[in-house]
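Reminder to self: tokens first, then the designed residues, so the page reads top to bottom the way the pipeline ran.
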């Protein structure tokens, strides 16, 4: 029986998944392997009748530059009792290629250990993906999918900014990013937005909804002093994950709650929440400013990969073949800044069994340069700002963040 390679995808989509799949398929097909894609991730891998796509060159060649994933993805995380040897024995599998986050990678290691205990030896190599760019890769290299998602976000952001300029109003935009603000930072800097708010900014103070809204109002008033009555403020959804849960409940915004009483943030537009709270505060200040919410999230995940990700994902796919040929297993494939393929093992960057997220370096020169260019109130503005608010010092950007 021919040897085979199995590919599965876990988590959510990111631009470039098809590029990785296609590159891996082409590389192993050329070496005489069968290449099998299993739909529904680990759920499909261990099902009684897995839904399998067998790749040929034609299909791989057709999908390599497409967005989305030709393999249906799943967030299912199997327990040890879900494991079985069925597909690995039936298809003579020699390599399991997983595409996903750290949970997908760690589960692959568990699978190979289980198979070894059943006298089945296979290799596993993981390709990391996330549009959040929060995996601590060497040389601060980007995770694949990030730059394509950012590029699409900038395209939408520029359109929204043009609408703000045309209609003379403000937009409150929320961007994906569970723990890190890379995407919001990249979109804001690429669009010259006057205000961006990311979780890393609260390195010297605790984040609150009140502080977030005052930061936006600081920008609105500053722009008024500049004779500009429009703008866009982008807020990373990551701030929600560092807010006190009770504060979210007390915000007055209608929420749904799970069985444990926790707010279900995935069921509501974060931009809507921020905009409602902004409008309430503007009305209390008697400031006549129109604002509208824009949510940026699912629109970015399945966009076509840009050239940077097409090259990076092709390199990572070829890297899978290189590491396999060298007998390296149980690792994440990575490329350094000059394109050299290196294996990374979860133990290389785990802290307490978890991978710490790579955050925006708030003290870096690039961050400081862009934050200095945002539009917000400073003490020099207070005299004129009193035309709009009686207490302009409450809207001083650096004071809100305790950066002074």
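Designed residues (404 positions):
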């Amino acid at each position: 029986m021919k040897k085979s390679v199995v590919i599965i995808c876990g988590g959510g989509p990111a631009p470039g998944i098809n590029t990785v799949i296609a590159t891996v398929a082409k590389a192993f097909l050329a070496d005489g392997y069968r290449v099998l894609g299993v739909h529904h991730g680990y759920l499909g891998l261990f099902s009684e009748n897995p839904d399998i796509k067998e790749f040929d060159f034609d299909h791989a060649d057709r999908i390599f530059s497409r967005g989305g994933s030709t393999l249906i993805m799943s967030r299912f995380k199997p327990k040890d009792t879900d494991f079985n040897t069925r597909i690995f024995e039936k298809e003579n599998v020699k390599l399991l290629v997983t595409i996903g986050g750290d949970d997908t990678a760690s589960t692959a290691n568990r699978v190979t250990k289980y198979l070894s205990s059943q006298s089945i030896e296979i290799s596993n190599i993981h390709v990391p993906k996330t549009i959040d760019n929060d995996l601590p890769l060497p040389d601060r290299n980007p995770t694949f999918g990030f730059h394509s998602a950012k590029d699409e976000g900038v395209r939408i952001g520029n359109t929204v900014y043009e609408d703000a300029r045309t209609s003379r109003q403000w937009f409150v935009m929320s961007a994906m990013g569970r723990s890190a603000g890379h995407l919001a930072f990249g979109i804001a800097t690429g669009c010259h937005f006057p205000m961006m708010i990311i979780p890393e900014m609260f390195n010297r103070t605790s984040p609150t909804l009140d502080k977030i809204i005052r930061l936006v109002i600081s920008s609105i008033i500053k722009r008024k002093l500049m004779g500009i009555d429009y703008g866009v403020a982008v807020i990373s959804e990551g701030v929600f994950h560092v807010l006190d849960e009770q504060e979210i409940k007390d915000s007055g915004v209608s929420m749904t709650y799970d069985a444990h009483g926790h707010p279900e943030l995935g069921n509501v537009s974060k931009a809507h929440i921020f905009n409602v709270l902004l409008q309430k505060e503007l009305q209390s200040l008697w400031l006549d400013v129109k604002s509208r919410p824009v949510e940026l999230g699912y629109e970015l995940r399945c966009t076509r990969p840009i050239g940077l990700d097409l090259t990076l994902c092709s390199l990572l796919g070829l890297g899978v073949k290189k590491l396999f040929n060298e007998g390296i297993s149980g690792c994440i494939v990575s490329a350094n800044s000059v394109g050299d393929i290196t294996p990374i093992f979860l133990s290389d960057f785990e802290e307490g069994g978890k991978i710490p997220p790579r955050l925006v370096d708030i003290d870096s020169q690039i961050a400081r340069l862009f934050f200095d260019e945002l539009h917000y109130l400073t003490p020099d503005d207070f005299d004129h700002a009193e035309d709009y608010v009686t207490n302009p010092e409450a809207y001083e950007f650096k004071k809100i963040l305790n950066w002074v």
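The CA atoms of residues 36 and 54 lie 5 Å apart.
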